[in-house]
Specification:
homodimer, about 240 residues, two-stranded antiparallel sheet
Chain lengths: ~240, ~240
């Protein structure tokens, strides 16, 4: 397993991706971007990149906040996330910069890019799918306990990336009404979309340390296991030769 | 591949199951019941039984209408289905009779039973899960473009079988409101439940001949392929040694 950090820029902001892949000779391969939670890029994201690499893809953990700007894995990161929630055009630009950096990587097949994101990262990968022609090469995205709220950046054009959301039904950050709104948004945009709804499952279900059921945040081993199966299936379908 | 028909009874009604399995020596194995659509047991159900057998389980296509009572694969079968929709206690009894017949089969592990059903059969397998102590041995069920409406048979006890519904979001027989109601019902019953929602997908998405979009009935190759992957994953989890 080869791992490296990679600097890329969005205007004057330097970001630091973490990249993982298994070295083979002279062959590009699909790449999966990893969108981090409000804590910024953490060990969990880098581990996800390595798990993605084990599947034969390039794992590319994004850095939305910028190099050196990291939050606390289990603290309050409102100050970090808020500027991007307030300015979704900024968020989109930052994400597209990450996508461009991945596409430029020598081992990456720039026409076979996917993305998976957790919590805030779920919103990020959905926003990347919503970016339309700005995200050429993006084949599909998986939002894992992500936030559904669409950006207000004018009329949504057709979404060509396939979309899968893995969703805990008791997630207070993505309510049943949000789910219905999301279904309508995706259908209107003619996306190839799916949602896997997990019952009795709260926000942050993939985070082993999440343990605040009163706040709707709780690890759930069943949902985590099922979500990883779904992620693998999704990218298998996405990157299958028959889909090219 | 060994196939056979098997008669079983519910009171004075004789039913004829279709059973498929690969013969191996002296070992019982998990069994998957197959619930048919309003057309009654058809070739499609018997083919599903054979596909289940290829996975190493016993495929057991139920016969809810009774031996020789078969509808038309693409006609109006209201007269056949209606008595069971009107009398869900009868339906439950008929289903439990099928479950008992499967459990009594010599190659079946009576403690590892699953079920998958299509359209009306989806309602059937959900009703089997809702039968509580009457369906001991039932570990999990998959409803495929099934109807969600619960029976009105008194207070629902805890549902111990795992539940997965594979659902087309544009299915007119299972509306977004039905989906929310189902989520509430399953959560209240403390079921381990999941719903996979497929966007831009109507009722009967697994039926290659379904082609009445004006009525909300339409084959969908993507949803069919994804549903078969989900079904396999579900039974793999259900029957895994670690789950026993």
């Amino acid at each position: 397993m080869h791992t490296e950090t990679l600097d890329y820029t969005d205007a004057d902001i330097v970001c630091e991706a973490f990249v993982a892949y298994i070295k083979t000779k002279g062959r590009t391969r699909p790449c999966v971007l990893i969108g981090h939670s409000w804590a910024g890029q953490t060990d969990a994201d880098r581990q996800t990149a390595s798990k993605i690499a084990q599947l034969g893809y390039v794992g590319f953990a994004l850095d939305i906040y910028g190099k050196g700007t990291r939050g606390h894995a289990s603290g309050d990161n409102s100050a970090l996330i808020q500027p991007f929630l307030d300015d979704r055009a900024l968020l989109r630009r930052r994400l597209v910069a990450g996508l461009a950096a991945a596409k430029a990587h020598p081992v990456v097949d720039s026409n076979r890019i996917g993305a998976v994101g957790f919590c805030f990262g779920g919103l990020c990968v959905l926003d990347l799918a919503r970016a339309g022609t700005a995200s050429v090469g993006l084949r599909g995205v998986v939002s894992v306990h992500g936030i559904f709220a669409p950006p207000e950046l004018g009329r949504q054009e057709k979404i060509t990336a396939k979309v899968l959301a893995l969703h805990g039904y008791d997630d207070p950050l993505a309510t049943p009404q949000n789910l219905l709104d999301f279904a309508r948004e995706m259908s209107t945009a003619a996306a190839d979309w799916q949602v896997h709804v997990y019952g009795n499952t709260m926000h942050s279900f993939t985070s082993p340390t999440a343990n605040q059921p009163d706040k709707g945040l709780m690890y759930n081993a069943d949902a985590e296991r099922r979500s990883w199966v779904a992620i693998q299936n999704f990218f298998e379908e996405l990157f299958a030769p028959s889909e090219l």
